[in-house]
Amino acid sequence: MKRCIALILQAVCLFSPTLAAAHHSFAAEFDDKQPVRLEGTVVKFEFMNPHSWVHVEVKNPDGTATQWAVETGSTNALFRQGWRKDSLRAGDHVTIDAYRAKNGTNTANARTVKLPDGRQVSAGSSRESSK
């Protein structure tokens, strides 16, 4: 029994730094001086930890489409804001106020999301918890 507990503790110590390093602060990846409003169609909603993701297809002025990956808070943070795993479905129209990624990709961190039923909800963003 003691040996089993010792092995478990060793595993926790071994993997804890890796897990902590995988989590990032808002400022490490996103730029609060680059707000963006994305209006488009949900391609996929991933209600998961440590962060949930909304994949949205946004129509460009020239008629082409761009797909964005938008990070939100954890499932627990979203749940506290009134979200459920079925709050967004592929094909839903949404408007997302977010902050662009510093690396220039079509990635953003959501601040608020206007759901298909018209409610505007907080995205449980890491930006909100870093203030």
Question: What is the general shape?
Answer: globular
Number of helices: 4
Number of strands: 6
Structural class: alpha+beta
Q: Work out the radius of gyration.
A: 18 Å
* Share in helix: 25-40%
Largest sheet: 5 strands, mixed, barrel
Strand order of the largest sheet: 1-2-3-5-4
SSE pattern, N- to C-terminal: HHEEEHEEEH
Uncertain runs: 11-22
Q: What is the straight-line distance between the termini?
A: 45 Å
Explain this structure to me?
The chain has 4 helices and 6 strands, in the order ααβββαβββα. It is an alpha+beta fold and 131 residues long. The protein has a 5-stranded mixed barrel. A hairpin with a 5-residue loop joins β2 (53-59) and β3. The radius of gyration is 18 Å and the shape is globular.
Main features:
131 residues, 4 helices, 27% helix
Write a compact overview of the structure shown:
This protein is of the alpha+beta class and 131 residues long.
Give the SSE map:
Layout: H1 2-22, H2 26-29, E1 30-46, E2 53-59, E3 65-71, H3 75-80, E4 93-101, E5 107-114, E6 120-122, H4 126-129
Parallel strand pairs: 3-5
Antiparallel strand pairs: 1-2, 1-4, 2-3, 4-5, 5-6
